[in-house]
Protein 1
Amino acid sequence: MLQPKIAELINDQVNKELYSAYLYLDFANYYEDAGLPGFAHWYEVQAQEERDHALAMRRYLIDCGHRVTFAAVDAPDKAYADMAAPLQAGLEHERYVTSLITAIYSEAFAQKDFRTMQFLDWFVKEQGEEEKNAEDLVKKMKLFGGDPKGLYLLDQELAARVYSPSTPDASAQA
Ligand code: FEO
């Protein structure tokens, strides 16, 4: 069994990961409407990864003998001023998620819950990658997004993203 506080934090994080999926699908909706299907596709894949994260945490709680409960997922409520805005919002969101994972890790560390720390190690690494991806997108948009041809080529590049399951188990098998 996990300490109640740790179980509660991970249960909350399941909701936050599902919100991340919802937020990224909202970005995808925006880009579909803006005529950038490659950007939309990139965020559809990102949303799938977020759902994977939620399911991995749900499974961890179940495997530790906890009953998982679901709260309502907030509606994404952002208005995007221009085509770069979702990218910047995505970067800020990933930094926020990193702070949430860090808070759970800190609690696990304080309680000497080595099993949870080991489970979260994968997420710590994953957050590093997700922040880097989000930073790269912001940079590329700054460099190439102002030019129609550059924007078209960037859209093509993002359209090529391939989904592969984003979970600790999948990484262990890779
Ligand atoms: Fe599940 Fe983008 O962190």
Note: The radius of gyration is 17 Å.
Protein 2
Amino acid sequence: MYNVRKVTEDLYWVGVNDKRIDLFENIFPIPRGVSYNSYLLLDEKTVLFDTVDWAYARELVKNVETVLDGRDLDYIIINHMEPDHGASLEAMLELYPKAKIVSTEKSFMIMRQFGFDIEGREIEVKEGDSMNFGKHTIAFVEAPMIHWPEVMVSFDVTNGVLFAADAFGTFGSLDGKLFNDEVNFDRDWLDDARRYYTNIVGKYGPFVQALLAKAATLDIKMIAPLHGPVWRSDLGYFIDKYDKWSKYEPEEEAVMIIYASMYGHTETAAQALATKLCERGMTNVVMYDVSRTDTSYLISETFRVSHIVLASVTYNLGIYPKMHNYLMDLKALDIRNRTFALMENGSWAPQAGDKMEEFLDTEVKLMDVLNERLLVTSAIKDVNEHEMDSMADSIIDSMEKRRESIEKFGK
Ligand code: FEO
């Protein structure tokens, strides 16, 4: 049995949905699965755009055979050689011995590193090159670090389809719904799209900005990414999200409180602060237990919100390990432009506050730390009320200043 969908009159989605995988890249939980998109163009020549994960090679083969309907495969364009897209190339090369591979120099290097026999089959392309396959001309645009260095995107100048590689992708299995207008993206997909982008490509904001600048010169009618829905309407909505994320601009004026609590006292303090913020009219507040939340969700929310409160117990005279893990990811992904407030708890030698502030001052870029810090000694008490009010006031005040700055200077 095959499972394909028509994208345009001569372009077919021949990808697969993976609902069996628990961890994408063996790191990120994906409870909704993921799709590996592959596309097949039937022109005077036949052209396959990328392949799928090896675990689904059989399904890809069936889909491609069905759409080719007896024709041979002439070309395979590889935009991205990470194995979730490139692994089944090996099967395609064996099945279609006359097919040529069109890709970048670095991509061919990676194919050889993975042990693929590609000799005599390479057509190397670079920025500005294009190829004609009959009715369709495909232009190649280099897109390094989105999300590996070999990446390119391919633009069909004939009908405006952008084969965007990992860009504009998202976690989530398609389950039959291929196009963005067949789903409620903002309600059902945006959180996964943000979590996908921020954790996979979030580190490479300047490279995404460079690609967006190139994309602005193209007359794009449709975006066909390697994961998630194909965009055939409202492209500006998703491009705008990418613009914000890659500039490290918060999407919303909001507070995320991440707490590390061993016996519930730090959590109680975090809850009290959330209440005080809501009493002051800031109800866009979310709370996460760092021990029970995969860091990928915290990273995603970090890109969404403007303000982050870290509430940590002191552990082995330092930051609670899981909170430290979040901070290390913040650094690894080069996230910036957020305002932090710090809460610490220590029963005999509180250290977490100083250590977190030192980390935010020295290890990451352009982070503000509010002066008002809350110290809890073992458990929150009436005496902490004033400090708690000061912290809530300071967060609200910082939001007002941010709003004024956006009005005056646009940021
Ligand atoms: Fe979906 Fe970078 O691979």
Note: The radius of gyration is 24 Å.
